Write a sequence for this structure.
């Protein structure tokens, strides 16, 4: 019985990978299919953890992970996602996920922009501007992020900013980061999603197996980001 379930899971993952490759052909055409598959597997795992069981709804959850960030369901700057996922009530699974998709569509239209226009502009600002070298307080951090990605500034609550700094500092295990690298990291978390370090699609576009912030400089960080943007097809 276990072997049948494993075979069924593999068929589903193959199908979901093909769906994502088709839906995001223009965006991730330079990402190896193996990395697309890893991203699908991670989305499947998170969808199952959220309580989804229907294949069609799991595919839609994976689609959201592709467009909003691998860990969108826990992103402090997307509080509506965790709120909707945590408030299913007694409705059908399709209705539940439909609510999430409706809210995500509004976000994609007003914050990400057509063909990722606003998102790409924010990423290009982060990659191309001199990295800030000061130790920012909450007010200056909010201003910095708003200037990077004004369409997303409505998400800049004090709680989200506090969570961002705490998560960002937790990414550095070898030694305290330099202010420029920390500020770039926080900017990337805001733009790409708080889980971008584990995002297989972004890793693939950067030509990396993993991100190790303990082993790079701020300049190297911006060079990797520039490389990823060069591979992105809007």
């Amino acid at each position: 019985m276990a072997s049948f379930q494993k075979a069924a899971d593999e068929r589903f993952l193959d199908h979901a990978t093909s769906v994502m490759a088709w839906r995001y052909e223009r965006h991730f055409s330079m990402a190896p299919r193996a990395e697309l598959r890893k991203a699908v597997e991670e989305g499947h795992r998170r969808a199952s953890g959220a309580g989804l069981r229907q294949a069609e709804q799991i595919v839609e959850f994976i689609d959201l992970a592709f467009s909003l960030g691998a860990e969108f369901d826990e992103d402090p700057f997307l509080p509506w996602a965790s709120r909707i996922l945590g408030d299913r009530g007694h409705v059908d699974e399709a209705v539940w996920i439909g609510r999430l998709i409706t809210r995500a569509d509004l976000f994609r239209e007003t914050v990400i922009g057509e063909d990722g226009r606003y998102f790409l502009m924010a990423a290009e600002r982060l990659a191309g501007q001199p990295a800030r070298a000061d130790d920012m307080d909450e007010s200056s951090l909010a201003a910095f992020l708003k200037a990077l990605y004004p369409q997303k500034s409505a998400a800049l609550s004090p709680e989200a900013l506090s969570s961002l700094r705490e998560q960002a500092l937790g990414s550095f295990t070898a030694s305290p980061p330099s202010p420029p690298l920390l500020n770039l990291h926080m900017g990337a978390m805001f733009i790409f999603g708080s889980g971008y370090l584990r995002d297989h699609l972004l890793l693939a576009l950067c030509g990396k197996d993993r991100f190790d912030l303990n082993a790079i400089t701020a300049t190297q960080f911006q060079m990797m980001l520039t490389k990823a943007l060069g591979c992105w097809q809007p």
About this structure: Residues 2-23 form the longest helix (22 residues). The mean pLDDT is 90. The chain has two domains: 2-113, 115-231. The chain has eleven helices and no strands.
